[in-house]
DNA sequence: CATGCTTGGATAGTGGCACTCCCCTACCGG
DNA sequence: CCGGTAGGGGAGTGCCACTATCCAAGCATG
């Protein structure tokens, strides 16, 4: 209850239609929005700030769906930016670029003037870190992962296309964020299974 | 610098070998550990507490690799537990079970006395949330995702098997945690690409 | 119409977490 | 011998997501 007021203050929920000076009315749509907000924050682990920006992107009128979605994804948390003072970052960028080359999505079709997109930054930062720790993450190592994510993105878009065009952006955002725990949970279950299969003897 | 002291206090790093009463010596191994800790926390977004537990599991002697890995994965954050007072949770459990049935890993080969594993809980909570919001997440919808994660787990274990047995648990943990941003970054890049391909007209 | 409960809005406070600062002692290099 | 630095303990800081308190304006009830 107090939390709802807090979200209202933070601009995550629209204020209700004013019925009198001090009374407002909330409808089914408000409730939906509230559930979405709580889901993004609690299940999708979005910080309140990011959630606000992401949801704001959904209400930008007059943008193409691609642009709306881009804006929303842009607002998702993406961890520390690559540290370009670190020479390891340069080499990580080369690895990332080689990977994108290999799988044939060099910078995702965005106009080439775009600076590093947040997902690309995530990738570079993670590769830098893995390399510094001596863990394998060459373009060849990463390629099967990229292929798997390519298939997942196809599935994602298939789900999105079940919806009416004016709902698709919200659905895409929700699925991007809320499927993350699903994917990570499934990955860990699959790892346990595969590890058991290989090291059963232990 | 102050951060290192903090990690020492928190038990994330082993104290250095005492050289005098007030002077300790840190070697290459300590440095490695420090880098690993920072990577898990900053890139892998682990809370300090979880990082401690995860790392502690690596030093449990006398357990099989599978058990060590299980303990470590158990300590990873897994979001809110399913709310069993909510009837939607029961239906989500059925969906999850059906999914695991379909892909043929019913509870990951763990002994059946195990309570809900954290990854299973993540799955159930996420399915509950998605269902409540009216987003698609039937077992049929989720199956391709599970298949993709199955392939990823195979790649994960392939990477792990490059290492000597006594390093494998640490590698597995590090790859589980540190590949998450890689996977999510790749997924978002692939989504952008696929969305562009489909909605180019916009 | 009086009364008491609820609602909405503003403001201030709480608890957790990840550091960060300060200070003191012991040491080491010059 | 002495200035600067590492180690260690404890207290403090800033941020974040809430949460509690107040107050005035309804509405509901007798």
Description:
- 2 copies of one chain form a homodimer.
- Chain A is globular.
- Helices cover 66% and strands 2% of the residues of chain A.
- The first copy, chain A, has a two-stranded antiparallel ribbon.
- Chain A starts with a helix and ends with a helix.
- Chain A is built from 8 helices and 2 strands.
- In chain A, α3 (48-58) packs antiparallel against α4 (65-74).
- Chain A is an all-alpha fold and 202 residues long.
- Chain A has helices at residues 2-9, 28-43, 48-58, 65-74, 87-103, 118-132, 139-160, 165-199, and strands at 17-18, 24-25.
- The structure holds a DNA duplex (30 and 30 nucleotides).
Helices, strands, pairings?
Two copies of one chain form a homodimer.
Chain A: H1 2-9, E1 17-18, E2 24-25, H2 28-43, H3 48-58, H4 65-74, H5 87-103, H6 118-132, H7 139-160, H8 165-199
Antiparallel strand pairs in A: 1-2
Chain A binds a DNA duplex (30 and 30 nucleotides) through helix 1.
